[in-house]
Amino acid sequence: MNRLTLAVSSCLLGDSVRYNGGHKLHRWLTNTLGQYADFRPFCPEVGIGLGIPREPIRLIQTDTGTRAVNTTNAAVDHTEALQHYAQSILPQLDDIDGYVVMQGSPSCGMERVKLYNGHAIPEKNGVGIHTQTVLQHRPGLPVEESGRLSDAALAENFVQRLYVHNQWRTQQPWQSAKALIDFHSRQKYLLMMHDYNRYKSLGRLLADLSDRESLAELGQRYFIELMDALKKIPKRGQRVNVLQHLLGYFKQQLSDKEKASLRHSIEQYQNAIVPFIVPIALLKHYVFLHGDAFPYLVQQSVLDPYPESLGLRNPI
Ligand code: SF4
């Protein structure tokens, strides 16, 4: 698998750029994901010329929308500067696979940032100005917050999306109808697992590529929807459904005993006795043994969505 390139809030890499001169080193990011990814750090507040240390800023709700202002003096408004900075770095996001942002920050937070609206207690429904601008201009880019990465299911989901994005970016399947169909075919069971309806609708979208807008435009539309669908965390039943579909391929090749052991492993997962990695590892074993008979299965990204050594399927 390719090495990833990720944009990251600088403070998560241990850079002392926070308002108080500190950092928020994220060890899973640097020590674990860092084995497979190169990082491109951005600190928007330093990027717009604020010092270290500096007065903290916060989000306030005004008649003209959400503003990022100094905590002690709301007349010092950084909103436009942060938006311009985000726009200025967009070219540097063209060859990345995702962005990890610092939670809760009025600049970098992705969701539930404190938003002051005149009441004593702020609501937690703001989005950092920098990240909001990036999200607007880069739909389809996987973006995740540092805090959410300690949730096993969210971390697994994010890393999976990073690798799908990396395939899209590096293979450029929008260059031909065949490449686009091949790309979609590889994501078939992964997509089915996350969002069955979108699995159907995206299949229809690509059903006739003869009389369409340009492939690049159609591909972009397809990809944004695909990435949106993959954000959904699959329920256990959705995973079981895909496992059963995959089991269906082995009718001829496996003995009754082997099929029974696969079924047993799927049932154990269904009953939360073993993690998802157990039936998947067994399926992969048989795909490996009978690969020639299953060229379609060999290429399915649901079997190998990211490096196994990340161990992300062990707890789910
Ligand atoms: S949260 Fe963002 S703006 Fe704040 S220190 Fe970290 S990188 Fe800089």
Fill in the keyword field for this structure:
316 residues, 8 strands, binds iron/sulfur cluster, elongated, alpha/beta, four-stranded parallel sheet, 43% helix, 2 domains
What topology does this entry show?
Layout: E1 4-9, H1 27-32, E2 37-42, H2 44-47, E3 57-62, E4 65-70, H3 79-89, E5 98-101, E6 113-116, E7 123-126, H4 129-137, E8 143-145, H5 152-171, H6 177-186, H7 188-194, H8 196-205, H9 215-230, H10 236-247, H11 256-270, H12 277-289, H13 295-298
Parallel strand pairs: 1-2, 1-5, 3-6, 5-8
Antiparallel strand pairs: 3-4, 6-7
Helix pairs in contact: 3-4, 7-8, 7-10, 8-9, 10-11, 11-12
The site of iron/sulfur cluster (SF4) has 12 residues, from helix 2.
Report on this model:
This protein has 316 residues and is α/β, with parallel strands linked by helices. The protein folds into two domains: 4-150, no CATH class; 153-316, no CATH class. It is built from 13 helices and eight strands. The strands form two sheets. The protein has a four-stranded parallel sheet. A four-stranded mixed sheet has the order 4-3-6-7, with no helix packed on it. The chain is elongated and about 75 Å long. The model has no long low-confidence stretch (mean pLDDT 95).
